[in-house]
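Appendix B. Raw example, untouched.
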Amino acid sequence: MMNKKKWFVPLMAIFFLLVAAPIAEAHVTVHPGESSTNAYEKYTVRIPVEKDANTTKVELVVPEGVNLVSVLPMEGWKYKLDKDENDMISKVTWTAKDKGIGPNEFIEFAFIGANPDEPGEFSWEAHQTYDDGSVVDWDGPPDADEPASVTKVVKGDAVAEHDDNATADTKESDESDDSSSTSGTGGWLPTTLAVVAILLALISLFRKRV
């Protein structure tokens, strides 16, 4: 009985690190996380499926100050644009034509947004609907369980054109590198900690036997 109790804590730690931690990191996010003023930026909203159900609809609220210009069509999905009283696009709704995306899958929707001429931070509220009728509202602060994605717009050197946006391309490339780096860290850190926990448990058991 004593041996079982001694093994219980490290086993639970391993379970949390390998299973619970990666799940907690899977959020709806808008990339890039940083862009420049006056840029016509290509934004990408990434939607992972966190439940044992299919995602069939995604609503993205366009933050005030960002002018959504155009949306990239996605096979298997249709989209609807809502406009405010100033005829500006205020929300995009993507709806699956069939079953949507299932567990352990993700999808990305792309669109072009014209950034404001003043720096600032812009929150992208998103609402993810599943085929079981549940809705996850990604609209909380950064430390919330369901945070809204945030893009930081910094001062740029020049106004970017529609067809020659070097700044946007550079930012997108940098963000892709940052995203890969972050994803890599999120992937190996829990595994490393789990291995350490296993080694410590084995060392402890070996010493008791000796």
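End of appendix B.
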